[in-house]
Amino acid sequence: MAPYAAPSLQQIIDMLADPDVERRLPLSTGGPAGPTAQIGLRDGRWCLYRLAIDGVAYDAFIEALREANEPLFPEHRMRFLVPGEILLQADGRTELLALLRKRKPWLDDDYQVQLRAPGWFA
Hints:
Blueprint: H1 9-16, E1 27-31, E2 34-42, E3 45-53, H2 55-67, E4 81-90, H3 93-103, E5 106-107, E6 113-114
Antiparallel strand pairs: 1-2, 2-3, 3-4, 5-6
């Protein structure tokens, strides 16, 4: 499998400055094995959220592959990514952009989004 090449969090923040970015949602970021977070609309609100695996569906898929004697590849898991924990949310694009600039998100060693504490100062 070729590595997943996602935009960096800074590139996504830069994209959010474009008023027409909504047509490009969701915006994904992550590591070489696939996306781990997205910015998108959830229930009408602009959100930064983690991605999670739909474990029940993924396990059923794996079992079906085993029964068919077919190989499982790392990229198969991307089919089963679903929105998970909301990290930040706002009513509008510019409000989310301001939150992202304030909280300065980064990807940790496991390519999971982390946020600076609200009182953190650069």
